[in-house]
Structures are given as C-alpha cells and as structure tokens.
Amino acid sequence: MPTEGPVRVLIVDDHIGIRSGIASLVNAEWPRMFCTGAAGTPLEALTQARIQQPHVVVLDVNLAGDDGLALIVPLQQLAPCEIVVLTSLSDPHVAAHALRLGAHACLHKTAPAAQLVACVFAAHQALDGVAPLNEGGIVSRRDGSKHPTAQGKTDDVDHGTSA
C-alpha cells in the first residue's frame, strides 16, 4: 500500500552537528520530505521510531560506541520503515553487513548531499514497492548478490544473498 504525504525521516546520529545538518537538508525538501525527529542514542532512536512512525531512518553505524547496525531490525519492527545507513568507515564489510541486516542502502558520510536526498527518496519508493534506482556508486543497495561500484559495474563480493 503506497504511503501518503511527504516522506517522514528520522535521523539517528550521536553527533548533534550531523543530526542538525541532515535535518536541515531533509527539511529543505519540504513538501516532499521532512524530519520527524532526531535521536543520538539507541534508546532515543527506538522511542522516536515507535512514536513518529518514520518512512525512512537515516542511521549512523557508530553511536558513541554503540552499534547502530544492531538497531536495524528493532527499528523495522517498531515502524514499517526503510533504513539508510550512514558511515564514516570505508570498510566494505560494514555496508555488506548492513544490507544483510535489512538496510536499504549504505552511504558514506562524505557523499554529496544530493545523493543522500536521492537515497532517502529511493528508500521510500522501496517501502512503497517501487524498485529502487541506482543513485550512484557511493550508494550500495540491496538488490541481489551484486552491488553497483563507482563505475556502474558490479562487484564480486558475496553480500550474503546467494546460496
């Protein structure tokens, strides 16, 4: 069933500057999307997800020492949402693990703002059952055993979706 109205986005990051910056970026897309709330800890994230029922959660991998990826399943249990993981880590295993856990995409924090916005919209479309678009090589997305690279080709890394 398609979701109605603007995309509701919850931002989860332990750095207030990052939360504020992403919230501003998201709110600049009004009326197509808006920030429903922001959280800096796992408990705040779970509480906000239960109350706000976001369509998309932008989730940091490292929440002041807590594993942000451990929140993917509980967040999706509390709200019918897609997860866009943000990371400052360059380890491809982090993205692969996030995707195996059910994240829609994993995006590096240095990605251009337009790519984050496009990734949030693509995640929302996936929530509505629309096949996501490849928004560029910086975005890794769950769509089978192959993932786009910066050149638009696929890599050979097994992301846990093959037998």
Describe the model:
By secondary structure, the protein is of the alpha/beta class. Helix content is 34%, strand content 21%. The protein contains five helices and eight strands, in the order βαβαβββαβαβαβ. It has helices spanning 16-27, 42-52, 72-78, 92-101, 113-127; strands at 7-12, 33-39, 56-60, 62-63, 66-67, 82-87, 105-108, 139-141. Strands 2-1-3-6-7-8 form a six-stranded mixed sheet, with helices on both faces. A two-stranded antiparallel ribbon has the order 4-5. The longest helix is centred in the last third of the chain and has 15 residues, at 113-127. The chain is globular, with a radius of gyration of 14 Å.
Which labels suit this protein?
163 residues, alpha/beta, six-stranded mixed sheet, 5 helices, disordered C terminus
